[in-house]
Design goal:
Chain lengths: 588, 454
């Protein structure tokens, strides 16, 4: 197609836009009479809807935490000289703020006070609606747009771009470039990437609204009343999409399957997912519900068989960063392996072969996995490095897995033998690459003897920049019915202390839950990021093409946000109706 | 004016004319095409501002500038050294990690000629990360190459012979008297100094024996006296209890060595389509031999009449790396090096992993029906508004920045920027009538045969 033809086509598109809107806007006044909720305006068959009913609550929280300042600090170096959209938006915001006599924060509150709705529809259609508290603010926006368009809109270039401006009773519709289309109707500003959708929105609709769609209504109810924001995901539609279907039906690695198979199966069976968000002081409470049920035959290993069973409460150790507690029956998981991994990979076979070597030819199902109680706990903590050894340049947190086992005296030795073989293989492999190996040692804590190993620092020159291997001092301890497999001996000792405090009493299991995750120290994670700044910046630089300064700024923002994080508690439960996930974010 | 209508001058075979500095004149004016040619060969990309600067400065001043780092070079180096710190002591990093950071450095273009020459020496020595074994060793290897890239060849050679990555990759982790490292010796004679045909089997064996005792222990070079072969050796006619340093002196004094290096650099900087006559290279080899000053040699080539003649103009096929970085540089942005590295590997150029002992074969072998489609796909991804490269390359914005925002001027600007109008008039006409979208237009231009030539 020649340039002239293309230009001609663009002009025709702009004319068509006028035509469509002229027809559509004929009846728009009726639609605007009552300020209908967004879900009355939106048509059915949405793929995703995010509705923020109380923007002020979220904005207050963000302002309280100085999030805008942190974002501004991280964004400023990223402003590209050629990023004209960003510059135009800033200019528009400044002009509008001046017109309304307020700054950016005030502007945001004025224009979004009555709600924000983002929706995605099939055929790559998306839209955002901003509802202002008062109609006057939107009228000011319209006037500003009109003045801008009157300055630029009449030029041949603007016409070629598909720019237009059209008023109708109670509002106006326009586009600057023929790609994004806008409309103001009463107190509502709509931004949409498809003109046909804008037309549909502006037409009065008696039926076929999102609110009257049963799928949406069920999800809306499940999200709960009085939410500050809520999200609807149309899983019935997404599950038809091959990539989603594939992601939810393929087991992935054994670890992925062990941790996520039940949730994936539930999502694969779901018609919808609803997420409700509540704000309570400095806490955000999220509740996600999916209406699909997990397949009991294949995911039974992750579903506690009765209400009295489930994961144990998380352990508490010094310098703790995060903890997880899950209910996973390894015996059932192993027996379900053929159903979970129908096309067994060479990797899976290799893993099985290794397990047989480690466990000296024992039957993995009955003599190994059956010995593990399904309640498994993980704890992650920051490290204190021994000054006599030095500090690694890259610092990793320590992690410990805590299993409860049957017949610990007997099985403990079996497990210890397997562990020592694994360390031996690691040492042999490292030796082949001329790398230092781990040295075994024994220690005693609270009368509990345990094995650990370490890398010798002898001959290391830069003790403040040790290689990453000095993050590891693997340890295996047996304490009562528990096996503690830790990345450091220090954490193994802390876990022994934590288990001692439990005094043999099994802590109560949260009803119905099969996964419990807690992040307990956002500042600690931020400090860890800071300690690994160089490596993280490098990853960002090569991964995104950002400059080191930009990567530093982004990292700084993440650290600021993490420092506000006091604790997060996340649990996943299987219910008779489907799956439920609950998250509590407590901010400081 | 373009170079396409010029023929190789009759004087091109005359060394005196060929290596004399190019002086623009009425018959051979200094123009955008030649400025871009110089910037392409002495770097990876030419931005519009770079081309305009070169056009204003003239050829000799531009070469002077290319031989020196740009403002911000030291600051960038300090920043990159900090980013490399964890790689330098990592036991788990792969050579890909180093390669990605190197690609990032190339895109920053603070000293393009230095990076281009570092890449040349990487291909010349052809040490593969997979054989060196550790990313930290490859990082040190590349630092070594960069340190000497525009320095002295003799000093580089001495360091290379003690470089752990080189020794590991050439099966010389421990050069024992009971089993001298023949692969290392063969590479030293055949690929690093004399070139094939200038030595015999005895020279290889005794060179290996002369270097016995050299070893890599705990990732460092170490000399093990107990592994030293103290018996007499004969290398290129020189007899005695020769050590490694003695052999290097013999090799560096041999006339074949400067000839060989000059020949390889000729293919890199001037032309890979012809085999230059020995008489053409002789003056360069003669002047290179005594002090092995690489910057002086590169400067002579880049300033020469031959370099600015049709005998050199677009007489190289761009490697995938030159192709991709040329696009990124023209549109004045740095893209995600990790993704780019993976895609370049798919096109046959995995940085730090040369496929053969001779490095990358290059030339026409870069191109076949699969890699041409691959190049087009890579360009499409680089220039896409979204995706792996996040739309960072924005031809429309670059055109606007340089005063060519109007739709009618964009195609002209992009043709000048990317191929300096070196396309037949009908192709230029079709492009100007083609896609109105600047990204699509840029993609169409970089997919042209002319853009594949450096």
């Amino acid at each position: 197609m020649s340039r002239a033809q293309k230009s001609n086509r663009t002009r025709k598109c702009a004319s068509l836009a006028f035509g469509i809107l002229s027809i559509a806007l004929g009846g728009v006044a009726a639609a605007l009479q009552a300020a209908q909720p967004a879900e009355q305006w939106l048509p059915q068959d949405a793929v995703l809807v995010v509705h923020i009913a109380q923007p002020a609550a979220l904005l207050d929280l963000a302002a309280d935490l100085k999030v805008p300042e942190a974002i501004a600090a991280s964004q400023s170096p990223q402003k590209q000289p050629g990023n004209s959209d960003w510059q135009n938006l800033l200019r528009f915001g400044d002009a509008l703020g001046a017109k309304l006599g307020t700054d950016w924060k005030g502007l945001l509150r004025k224009l979004t006070g009555a709600g924000i709705t983002y929706a995605v529809y099939p055929r790559d259609t998306n839209l955002v609606m901003f509802d202002a508290q008062d109609i006057g603010a939107m009228e000011q926006v319209r006037q500003l747009v009109q003045s801008i368009i009157s300055q630029q809109g009449g030029t041949p270039e603007a016409s070629k771009r598909g720019a237009f401006y059209r008023e109708f009773p109670g509002g106006a519709a326009w586009s600057f470039d023929g790609k994004q289309h806008f409309a103001i109707a009463g107190n509502r500003l709509v931004m949409c990437n498809r003109l046909e959708m804008l037309k549909l929105l502006l037409q009065p609709r008696q039926q076929g609204a999102l609110a009257s769609w049963p799928l949406y209504a069920q999800a809306r109810k499940a999200a709960g009343e009085g939410t500050a924001a809520w999200v609807f995901v149309n899983m019935a539609m997404l599950n038809q999409a091959p990539p989603v279907r594939q992601a939810l039906t393929q087991a992935g690695s054994p670890l992925e399957a062990l941790l996520g198979a039940a949730v994936k199966q539930s999502l694969g069976q779901s018609n919808w997912v609803a997420v409700g968000v509540r704000v309570a002081g400095r806490s955000l409470l999220l509740r996600a519900v999916a209406d699909g049920k997990a397949d009991l035959r294949a995911a039974a290993f992750a579903l506690p068989p009765d209400a009295g069973q489930g994961p144990l409460s998380n352990l508490v150790v010094p310098r703790q960063l995060a903890a997880a507690s899950v209910w996973r029956d390894l015996h059932k998981f192993y027996l379900a392996k053929d159903a979970l991994f129908p096309g067994k990979t060479s990797g899976g076979i290799l893993l099985e072969n290794f397990m047989e070597i480690f466990f000296t030819g024992r039957d993995l199902a009955e003599e190994v996995f059956a010995r593990f109680n399904p309640a498994v706990r993980l704890v992650v903590a920051g490290q204190e490095y021994d000054a006599a050894v030095g500090t690694p340049l890259e610092q990793y947190p320590a992690a410990a897995l805590v299993f409860r086992v049957d017949r610990p005296d007997d099985f403990g030795e079996v497990f210890e033998e397997a562990w020592q073989k694994a360390i031996g293989i690691v040492n042999f492999t490292r030796g082949q690459q001329a790398q230092r190996g781990l040295i075994f040692d024994k220690s005693v804590h609270r009368g509990v003897p345990f094995t650990y190993c370490y890398f010798s620092a002898h001959g290391e020159k830069a003790r403040e920049r040790l290689p990453a291997r000095f993050n590891l001092r693997p340890a295996l301890a047996r304490f009562g019915p528990y096996l503690i497999l830790s990345s450091t001996d220090a954490l193994a000792k802390d876990v022994i202390d934590a288990l001692s405090r439990e005094e043999g009493r099994a802590p109560p299991a949260p009803a119905g839950a099969h996964t419990l995750l807690e992040i307990t120290n956002g500042s600690g994670i931020a400090a860890l990021l800071n300690a690994n700044r160089s490596a993280l910046v490098r990853q960002s630089v090569v991964g995104s093409g950002a400059s080191p300064q930009q990567a530093e700024a982004q990292l700084g923002l993440n650290m600021v946000l993490l420092q506000h994080l006091d604790r997060v508690r996340f649990s996943v439960s299987a219910t008779p109706e489907g799956h439920r996930a609950e998250a509590e974010l407590h901010l400081r | 004016m373009t170079m396409t209508d010029q023929t190789v001058p009759a004087a091109a075979g005359d060394p005196k004319w060929a290596w004399a500095p190019y002086q623009p004149g009425d018959n051979r004016p200094w123009n955008l095409a030649l400025a871009a040619h110089l910037l392409r060969r002495a770097g990876f990309a030419a931005s519009w501002s770079d081309m305009q600067q070169a056009l204003a400065d003239g050829p000799q001043r531009t070469v002077d500038r290319l031989l020196q780092p740009r403002a911000g070079f030291e600051e960038l180096e300090r920043g990159l050294e900090a980013l490399e710190a964890s790689l330098a002591i990592s036991e788990s990093a792969a050579s890909d990690d180093c390669a990605e950071l190197w690609l990032y450095r190339m895109m920053q273009a603070r000293h393009p000629l230095l990076e281009k020459m570092t890449l040349f020496w990487h291909g010349y020595l052809a040490i593969a990360g997979a054989r060196a074994g550790k990313a930290s060793l490859m990082l040190r290897h590349v630092r070594l190459l960069r340190r000497h890239a525009l320095g002295r060849f003799d000093a580089m050679l001495r360091d290379v012979c003690r470089d752990p990555a080189t020794l590991m990759a050439l099966d010389a982790r421990v050069n024992r008297k009971a089993s001298p490292a023949l692969e290392f010796a063969g590479a030293l004679l055949g690929r690093y100094t004399l070139g094939a045909g200038a030595f015999g089997e005895t020279d290889v064996r005794d060179t290996a024996r002369a270097f016995t005792g050299a070893a890599v222990v705990a990732d460092e070079y170490r000399y093990l006296a107990h592994e030293r072969d103290e018996a007499a050796k004969t290398v290129l006619g020189r007899q005695g209890d020769l050590g490694g340093e003695d052999v290097l002196r013999v090799l560096l004094a041999h006339p074949a060595t400067p000839r060989f290096v000059v020949g390889r650099l000729y293919g890199w900087l001037i032309s890979e389509t012809d085999v230059p006559a020995a008489s053409l290279l002789a003056p360069l080899a003669d002047s290179f031999g005594p002090d092995y000053d690489i910057a002086k040699l590169a400067g002579t080539m880049l300033r020469s009449n031959l370099f600015f003649s049709a005998g050199a103009y677009r007489q190289r096929v761009k490697s995938p790396l030159e192709f991709a970085l040329g696009i990124a540089g023209a549109f004045e942005a740095s893209v995600a090096a990790a993704s780019l590295h993976r895609q370049l590997a798919g096109l046959g150029q995995q940085l730090l992993e040369p496929p053969t002992r001779e490095g990358w074969p290059g030339g026409r072998r870069w191109l076949n029906r699969f890699t041409l489609v691959g190049r087009s796909n890579l360009a499409a991804e680089l220039l896409a508004a979204q995706g792996s490269y996040a739309g960072k390359l924005d031809p429309q914005a670059v055109a606007a920045r340089h005063g060519s925002a109007e739709p009618g001027r964009i195609s002209r600007f992009l043709l000048e920027l990317l191929v300096q109008n070196d396309v037949p008039a009908e192709v230029a006409g079709q492009l100007s009538q083609g896609p109105g979208d600047a990204r699509q237009l840029a993609h169409a231009i970089v997919a042209l045969p002319e853009y594949q030539l450096a």
